[in-house]
Amino acid sequence: MTMTEGIRGKMRDNEQIIGRADLNDAEAILAVTTLDETDVVHAVQDNADAIFTWGYDKGERAKLDKLYEKAKTSQWNATTDLPWELDVDIEKMVRDQNLAISGSDELAPPFDLSDTPLKNWGDKEFLEFGIEAQNHLLSQFMHGEQGALLCTAKIVETVPWIDAKYYAATQVVDEARHVEVFSRYLDEKLEGNYPINAHLRMLLDDIINDSRWDMTYLGMQIMVEGLALAAFGMLHQTTSEPLLKQLLRYVMSDEARHVAFGVLSLEEYYGSLSAAELRERQEFAFEAAVRMRDRFLQQEVWQRYDIDVAPLIPLIQQDPGRILFQQLLFSKIVPNCKKLGLLDAGVTKEGEKGWLRERFEEMGVIEFEHLEDTGEEYGDLDFVAADRESA
Ligand SMILES: [Fe+2]
Ligand SMILES: [Fe+2]
User: Fold this and answer.
1) What is the pLDDT of residues 112-150, one digit of tens each?
2) Domain 64-79+89-101+121-390: what homologous superfamily?
3) Cα of 196 to ligand 1 centre, how many Å?
4) Burial 231-249 (b: 16+ CB within 10 A, else e)
């Protein structure tokens, strides 16, 4: 069920929000698959009015204005600012990354595979799989970037404030650049790409489909881009591949602004919403969180190997390295949801726990609530400006 199919104002349970009662129900996760892989074009109804505003005064939004100025001076050129001439050694990249994450040369995952379809796999197979998985990861980044491109173009039309339209317009250019760099990297340096993951596509469709302008922000700027900012940061830290490292560094500089744009805009708007309206936002945030977590099972890679992944899922789900990685993906989302008041919205008496707080507890990510929110920290992540200053 999508958000827009839900009955507005009515509280829904897990089954109704994400289509399953148990978050870790592997069968239900794998049952969601991409059906029309071969179609190049995918149309989604965006259900929204394009809003003109005749109020051209930028008004009281000094923080948004500052962000807009920063966006104008921190632009970069994907063609000339990245070292595309470098050769990429994909095997070295996969091995180094594995070493950085697990602290071991061993590419096989650290659990007993003897009862699984991988029992005969050795270093060669795991290396090949690692290369596929890396390709899948970067392919999903590329597709997610296109989602951001479309969402931000939609925000230009739908947000009622002139200063937010200005800022969103700069983000459209940023996102075009991001699609461009990931697509070029996959095309020139790796061997092609994977189609969009079924869970990611479902989420992007839901975000575009929703008629309410703030839901585009929540789904994209807070959730998808919040996760991307954390994921790019982790990959940037663990990869030894110089072109990818520089690419991620610059994409992250932009992404931090994008998340800040979400925080600064929604902070103001959420102040005017009722408890029932905020509950819908909490549910949408939870739905997005689960969809994004599901996509990291990388089921399309397993499908390419024609391996029944079901017996492996419980092992994968208990792998401590993986659990940590999955949690860290939420290190930006949780403090930003807290800043927006979404963790505890709806609490009426002392001792009661917020609905989204409970969901994030279930997902094991609530501890990030005390980190700095991106509305404050984005300036520290502007590596483009930092490089120019030091040049
Ligand atoms: Fe982006
Ligand atoms: Fe972005």
Assistant:
1) 899 889 999 999 999 999 999 999 999 999 999 999 999
2) Ribonucleotide Reductase, subunit A (1.10.620.20)
3) 16
4) bbbbbbeebebebbebbbb
